[in-house]
Amino acid sequence: MIKILFLTPYREMSPQIHHIIETYSFEEKIEPDFILCDNSDKLKTAPPDQTCYDAIVGRGMTVSTLHNTSITIPIIELIVSASDIIRTIQKCREKHQCHKIAVVGPVTMSYAAKALSTLSNFPIEVYYLQNRPEIQTIISDAQRSGCDAVIGGTTAIDYATTIGLPAVMIENSDESLWNAIGDAVRLVCLQRREREQTEFLNIVMNNYKEGVVVVDAKRNIKFINDFAVKTIGMEANNCLNQDAMFWFHDLREAITAAFSEHRTAHTELFVYKGRSYSASIIPIIVREQTISVILCFDDIKSIQKNEQQIRNKLYSKGMVAGYTFNEIVHKSKAMEDLIAKAKRFAMVESNVLITGETGVGKELFAQSIHNYSKRKNAPFVAVNCAALPEHLLESELFGYSEGAFTGASKGGKQGLFELAHNGTLLLDEISELPLPLQSKLLRVLQEKNIRRIGDNKVIPIDIRIIAATNRNLHELSRKNLFRQDLYYRLDVLELNIMPLRERSDDIILLFEAFLRRLRPNLTKYPVLTNEATAVLRAYPWEGNIRELQNIAERVLVLNEKDAIDAQILQSLLPPTGVAPFISENPSDSSFDDIEAENIIKVLEQTSSRKEAAARLGISRSTLWRKIREYGIA
């Protein structure tokens, strides 16, 4: 619904407008209202109430007067067409038998009349009326020039009538009224859409969690959002249309470049009242001309805090340190001492190198160190250096910028170094890191910053590195298979986790813990016999804790008894695992010599022949026989 006020110069116009609205369809439904306006001077002191209408339609001097008031809604001028003037001239001639007619009205009326004066055989004199006081002079001039009748609007007709000069009001045709109504509807709809867009932009900008300031070509502030006002302590009323350089003088060069070179700038720094901010400067270009620039800025401390929250949310979905020292199952003195040592490592910021055979729990210790450190509330990110090819590993570690290579994600991607900011990065199987990446990792450790693939910006990072390996890095570095300088950077604090066979006191405890962990809903778990316990303690566990967990799971699936005996364990243990000691020079010895050597070593490392037989995977009678056969004392 559009409410339009029509200021009509004559009464007959109102039913004419009603007829047009009822006959023709418009973009919106129209509700008309009318005021007979026979004196435009009245509008100066008593303009219509604009709050009741969406637009005003008037003619001639009425429109000129309205434009000089405080009315802000659309004002549409009803144009007098050439055909309107022709009809009025014909009517005036027929009514007053005149010989020369003066056409008096505003400039929009006089244009059409002047065109007619050159085409018509009937003499016409055109007079342009700028304001009401001129009318007396204009009519006098018309009379002196021989005009014996006047046609025009309300002002001209009223004065001509008072001095006895024949006069006829110019009436508008349906076509001109239809055009004026259509113009009013279109202008109101356009204004509504603009108002909606402006309101939408204001809502968006004022709820945007960055400061937004629009600066025009004169360097004056044309818009500022609520966040900018609060963040930088500005007052919107005091800074609008003021010199932006007062607040953003550190950005003068970047703003000048945006206007002169259409250059966009990111991460520009400026300081205001002792606080540091990061800003982006974006030019608004129309027809190859920068008409204004947008400044988007935020407090650097807020940016860092938000980045950390994002990292935490990303890695709260799985890539966090889930283990602590309290969850390391043990009772051996060796493991107790190792945990105490790891806790001391956790309290400092130095890099840690964790070594040990596969399956001993290197990542378990890495996660526990992280959770015991002051970085425990920050991300823990783990990457297996052997799991990805070199080109993928580099992009995972360092990230990449948009367009860095074919298939690169739009907007680029953060690398694991960035995502581990303020936290811990575990580089598992560090010995498998390709030499080119070793060089890049060394630079990261030295400079504490990274550069994404395809980008020239340096990103500062604060991370703790924990590296893990089951190989001898010192030996690899001596053979030039691992960078020596990187090795010494990583090996600041070294934690060597002993294999399971060297802490046999923990084997049974771990085995029983795995049974409970794998089947937490069981009310009763099978019990190990003494013989089964001896088998577990004697087995070399080359796969360490991981292998022990696998055997526990096999037992739960395949054992159907209330007890776990030696027979079921021996049937589930790999046959290659029963003889842990192999001669260092097998080609120089016979099979009997090798077997005798293994039996001697097992007897030396066990407390009884029963335990030795279990470790060797043979019966006690067979062990007795072989001892006698090989003459072992």
Low-confidence stretches: 576-591
| CATH architecture label of the largest domain | 3-Layer(aba) Sandwich
Global Rg: 47 Å
What is the CATH topology descriptor of the largest domain?
Rossmann fold
Q: What would you call the shape?
A: rod-shaped
For the record, the CATH class of the largest domain is Alpha Beta
* Main sheet: strands, sense, barrel: 5 strands, antiparallel
Helix content: 40-55%
Q: How many structural domains?
A: 6
The CATH H-level superfamily of the largest domain is P-loop containing nucleotide triphosphate hydrolases
Q: Helical region count? A: 27
Number of DSSP-assigned strands: 24
- Report strand order across the widest sheet: 10-9-13-12-11
| Distance, first to last CA | 113 Å
The helix-and-strand class reads alpha/beta
Measured by DSSP, the beta-strand proportion falls in 15-25%
Mean pLDDT: 84
Structural overview:
A hairpin with a 2-residue loop joins β11 and β12. The protein has six domains: 2-78 and 177-188, Rossmann fold (3-Layer(aba) Sandwich), CATH 3.40.50; 82-171, Rossmann fold, CATH 3.40.50; 208-302, PAS domain (Beta-Lactamase, 2-Layer Sandwich); 325-496, 3-Layer(aba) Sandwich (Rossmann fold); 500-577, Helicase, Ruva Protein, domain 3 (Orthogonal Bundle); 586-630, Arc Repressor Mutant, subunit A, CATH 1.10.10. It has a five-stranded antiparallel beta sheet with strand order 10-9-13-12-11. It is of the alpha/beta class and 633 residues long. The protein is rod-shaped, with a radius of gyration of 47 Å.
